[in-house]
């Protein structure tokens, strides 16, 4: 073969190989992007909230899960009926793991017609889900404490912690392959104080737990696969419900209602300095009436809070409102400042940012919809995209 022909041959083969490698890399990146933009919505049909207090729904359809893929827009959605979940408790009773392949779900209630005054009783069930299966499949179930509610998974996905609301305890769950199991249950408070949610610090060495009726955050140390309760309690505004930490680990954030019957009085976000010794609350930001849930953006620069704002009252009540509210706060050093308040669906439950921070989703409970917002030039706007789900959306979590 002539030298110049050989050079052309080698160059052509190298170019072809480069194209193939580029195509493979692009496919891998695309697949990773698709996985990274997932959200999971738990949709309940057993309990409705429009009368002002939780009531058992008549002739309910099965509960369901909805998996939303934001790798394209509008997002792709697939629904799986028949997987039980609940609206009772903070909307943080599920989490997506393993790059979008698995999920952990706390199913805290069992319907019981003999129970009074409400036709349900606390359960103990946790579910380990296969999100790659269509429909979503329950791989295994196992027990936590009484009424497992808000949960958190550590950054390395070695363990999870769930707040057992009716037991006043936290359960430590070991995540190993497809056989997660509860390895410890730690008593934190009296059951009537209603421990509701938990947030694991990014370093995996401590956790904050919201003791709702006690009005404080409990600090829990994590070491050598064991939880220990600190004597230190962090005082916060009102009745803390959902709790999160900033991605840099500097701050803890929680929000909840003040006096249980305030209804339309403004409540506040509490900001906890986790770098001080001991940790302490350093400020409050007014956010509006009755925050159901809060979430921090992946870059730590935004907080979204969904507010009942009177939408949880029946139409006959003078405090009734047709819409809920979405409060947006922007980070400013060790604090946050109010940036926007947007209308959202009635009785908003969960709220979540996509992992790229571009979109924000809010659950509208009685409307059976997910409302989608987008960040455009530093401002959040309603895209007017509404995702219908086969139930009343009650819990929401995004992949990391």
Protein model, in words:
The chain is mainly beta and 400 residues long. It has a domain at 37-290: Methylamine Dehydrogenase, Chain H (7 Propeller), CATH 2.130.10. It has one helix and 30 strands. It has one helix at residues 3-36, and strands spanning 38-44, 47-48, 55-56, 64-69, 76-81, 94-97, 102-111, 120-130, 137-143, 148-153, 159-164, 169-174, 181-187, 195-200, 206-211, 216-223, 226-235, 242-245, 251-256, 267-273, 280-288, 291-296, 302-307, 324-332, 335-344, 348-353, 359-364, 369-376, 379-388, 392-398. The strands form eight sheets. A four-stranded antiparallel beta sheet has the order 5-4-1-30. It is globular.
Gyration radius over CA: 22 Å
Shape: globular
Treating each run of at least 4 consecutive H or I residues as one helix, how many helices?
1
The multimeric state of the shown protein is: single chain
The CATH class assignment of the domain at 37-290 is Mainly Beta
Strand runs, count: 30
Write the CATH homologous superfamily of the domain at 37-290. YVTN repeat-like/Quinoprotein amine dehydrogenase
> Largest sheet, described in full?
4 strands, antiparallel
Task: Describe the secondary-structure layout.
Layout: H1 3-36, E1 38-44, E2 47-48, E3 55-56, E4 64-69, E5 76-81, E6 94-97, E7 102-111, E8 120-130, E9 137-143, E10 148-153, E11 159-164, E12 169-174, E13 181-187, E14 195-200, E15 206-211, E16 216-223, E17 226-235, E18 242-245, E19 251-256, E20 267-273, E21 280-288, E22 291-296, E23 302-307, E24 324-332, E25 335-344, E26 348-353, E27 359-364, E28 369-376, E29 379-388, E30 392-398
Antiparallel strand pairs: 1-4, 1-30, 2-3, 4-5, 6-7, 7-8, 8-9, 10-11, 11-12, 12-13, 14-15, 15-16, 16-17, 18-19, 19-20, 20-21, 22-23, 23-24, 24-25, 26-27, 27-28, 28-29
